[in-house]
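Tokens as discussed.
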């Protein structure tokens, strides 16, 4: 454990620290300061006890999510809890269940210490959670789950944690709903800030960002960091508005999602979440609670609009523009492929996707399944636009529905909750933003179709048509985001995936990462100068600064990081300004 030197603390942090610890003066803070200057090893728990008082008893020790099924936990024999284990097994791949548990991550390899040469975690077999081989006689370990977490309720909780980290050298992680694909919300031996409980939602039909002149107004919804997609969709619908958000029920709306960019299947018309956020309230790593928008802290605001992860602070709430409630046309197509069907299908998709993007369609394609939506067409125009795909699917006796639904919520509830990406299996992604030239020119279409055809023997690419193709950013600072400019010219955000098994050996995990990287590398080679989506990129994305942000944005982002986080209190994997993979914070990430 590294002990920070108090002399290196910035002045604002010291003020925050004094404020945060004010309530506990005389109850042991002097002892904490004492131990911190000597090194905490011997008094580790004293320090956590003091922190616990400071945060009103909301500090908890983390436990492995799956432990009710195990009779050995951290080497100790314990009693299996049959009822809790049965509930867990029944719900192992249910996001609504997982999201309630601190120790659960949607991609559970991040609960484990993957760099370990054995299975250092506590997983069930996601393909059969009742498989006793996963838990009988197996030692359940905490793995990569943080040892402690604060159930964040107040700004002061975050300030206390930052001060604690600066004083003791205990590293921090920030978790919200646990959907991270890159292991940025867990971390062995970290103290986690769990922002899941910040659930306020409110509407303002003429919101003026703080510090702006009163003629700047937006119709907005403000959500606490812990509000999930499903809840914000329902709230918006209830006030006769539409909110633009992700393709999954339990993603946090005001946390990692918009911080990394945030795509929606309505993004082709309405932009990314980073385009639509108008104000963020955030505790920066120096301990100050700041408001960032187009009129104040503009560089921080820029950084929070795509710069990603927790690198620039802990978000307490954010405010996003809404749209009127509108009807949508939905297209749901599927068939059973035989022979060369799949390659022909992807080729057809490549040939039509530019037109579809121009028609406002956004959606997901997984092998022979397409689910798209457009707010721009009426039903007969939607039928005509989709005709080439409809003909293809009907010729193979597949199913086709093209229907109008009264609202995006109606569409989401009818189709998306059944189609959203799986959680529970140990999935890893590699992704690439595919520029329009691969859809608008004969040679581009031929090259892309050929590469997809080659890839099919490995995996069917998962296509997100969710790039801001028709969207025009607002003028000036109101429209500035830090996502890679490659988003603006892309038609598809393409991904391929790899699934680990609960009992993979270190060699098998290494092999998985290498294999996936090699496949996505072919898409990088095809599209030099394009980029990838930070939230869903390859864990080992090469040249990630250019890939996720582009060189110009990265320079600005790095300046913001250095200004607010000189002590690296809120670093994360491949986040802006990280110290690199050898930082102890990433001890469970395999070093390929
Ligand atoms: C099944 C699934 C479907 C997805 N679908 C989409 C989609 O449709 N569109 C899309 O754009 N993305 C999608 N994603 C990716 C998703 O947006 C990101 O993983 C996002 O970061 C998840 O947010 P979270 O709160 O669940 O994640 P967490 O794992 O809790 O956190 C993710 C990152 O954000 C940071 N963070 C979380 N909360 C805060 C906070 N309050 N302040 C500062 N930093 C914070 C964490 O430190 C971490 O770096 C999907 C992911 C999954 C697993
Ligand atoms: C702090 O340390 C000093 C010297 O080690 C000791 O005399 C003093 O009693 C300690 N104070 C507290 C509050 O523990
Ligand atoms: C923090 O305090 C609360 C309330 O006293 C207690 O229930 C909890 O166990 C404490 N947490 C830790 C990690 O000791
Ligand atoms: C386990 O169960 C046995 C029998 O019911 C009980 O005696 C024992 O105390 C329990 N052990 C723990 C660790 O709870
Ligand atoms: C699964 O989780 C849901 C939601 O948390 C819960 O209502 C249900 O009881 C769980 N299922 C079982 C079999 O325990
Ligand atoms: C794992 O690594 C440890 C320490 O390097 C070593 O002692 C142990 O033998 C290794 N175990 C296996 C299964 O390779
Ligand atoms: C909802 O909004 C739409 C579009 O703005 C409007 O036409 C409609 O009258 C509104 N309905 C209600 C009940 O307010
Ligand atoms: C549907 O939209 C098309 C194209 O805008 C238009 O020509 C047509 O008249 C519309 N049909 C109906 C029924 O509104
Ligand atoms: C589709 O179904 C029809 C009628 O059942 C059948 O004649 C035809 O062979 C089928 N075609 C395919 C490609 O399966
Ligand atoms: C991993 O689990 C599977 C399914 O339970 C089992 O068949 C296989 O033998 C296990 N592999 C190892 C190396 O234990």
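Sequence:
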């Amino acid at each position: 454990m590294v002990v920070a030197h108090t002399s290196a603390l910035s002045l604002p942090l010291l003020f925050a620290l004094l404020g945060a610890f004010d309530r506990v003066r005389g109850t042991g803070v002097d002892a904490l300061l004492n131990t911190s200057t000597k090194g905490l090893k011997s008094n580790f728990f004293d320090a956590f006890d003091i922190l616990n008082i400071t945060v009103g008893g909301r500090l908890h020790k983390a436990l492995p999510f799956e432990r009710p099924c195990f009779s050995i936990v951290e080497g100790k024999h314990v009693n299996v809890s049959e009822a809790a284990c049965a509930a867990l097994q029944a719900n192992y791949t249910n996001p609504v269940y997982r999201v309630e548990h601190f120790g659960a991550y949607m991609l559970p390899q991040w609960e484990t210490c993957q760099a370990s040469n054995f299975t250092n975690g506590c997983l069930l077999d996601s393909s059969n959670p009742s498989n006793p081989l996963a838990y009988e006689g197996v030692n359940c370990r905490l793995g990569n789950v943080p040892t402690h977490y604060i159930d964040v309720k107040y700004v002061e909780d975050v300030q206390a944690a930052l001060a604690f980290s600066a004083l003791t050298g205990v590293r921090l992680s920030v978790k919200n709903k646990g959907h991270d694909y890159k292991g940025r919300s867990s971390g062995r031996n970290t103290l986690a800030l769990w922002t899941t409980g910040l659930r306020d939602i409110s509407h303002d039909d003429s919101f003026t960002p703080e510090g702006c002149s009163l003629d700047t107004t937006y119709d907005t919804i403000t959500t606490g960091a812990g509000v999930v997609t499903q809840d914000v969709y329902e709230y918006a619908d209830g006030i006769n508005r539409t909110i633009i958000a992700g393709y999954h029920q339990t993603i946090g709306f005001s946390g990692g999602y918009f911080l990394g960019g945030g795509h929606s299947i309505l993004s082709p018309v309405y932009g990314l979440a980073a385009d639509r956020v108008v104000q963020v309230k955030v505790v920066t790593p120096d301990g100050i609670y700041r408001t960032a928008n187009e009129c104040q802290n503009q560089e921080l605001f820029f950084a929070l609009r795509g710069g990603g992860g927790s690198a620039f602070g802990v978000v307490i709430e954010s405010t996003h523009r809404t749209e009127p409630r509108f009807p949508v046309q939905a297209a749901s197509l599927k068939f059973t492929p035989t022979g060369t069907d799949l390659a022909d299908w992807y080729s057809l998709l490549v040939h039509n996707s530019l037109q579809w993007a121009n028609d406002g369609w956004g959606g997901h394609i997984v092998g022979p399944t397409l689910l798209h939506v457009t707010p721009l067409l009426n039903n007969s125009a939607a039928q005509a636009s989709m005709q080439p795909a409809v003909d293809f699917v009907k010729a193979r006796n597949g199913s086709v529905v093209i229907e109008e639904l009264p609202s995006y919520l109606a569409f989401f509830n009818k189709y998306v909750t059944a189609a959203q990406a799986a959680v529970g299996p140990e999935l890893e992604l590699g992704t690439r933003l595919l520029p329009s030239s691969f859809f608008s020119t004969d040679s581009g279409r031929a090259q892309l179709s050929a590469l997809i055809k080659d890839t099919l023997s490995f995996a069917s690419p998962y296509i997100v048509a969710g790039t801001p193709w028709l969207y025009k950013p607002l003028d000036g600072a109101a429209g500035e985001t830090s996502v890679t400019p490659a988003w603006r010219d892309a038609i598809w955000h393409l991904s391929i995936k790899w699934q680990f098994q609960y009992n993979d050996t270190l060699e098998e995990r290494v092999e998985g990462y290498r294999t996936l990287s090699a496949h996505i590398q072919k898409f990088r080679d095809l599209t030099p100068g394009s980029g990838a989506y930070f939230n869903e990129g390859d864990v080992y994305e090469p040249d990630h600064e250019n890939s996720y942000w582009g060189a110009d944005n990265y320079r600005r982002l790095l300046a913001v990081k250095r200004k607010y986080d000189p002590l690296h209190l809120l670093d994360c994997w491949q986040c802006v300004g990280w110290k690199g993979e050898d930082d102890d914070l990433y001890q469970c990430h395999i070093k390929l």
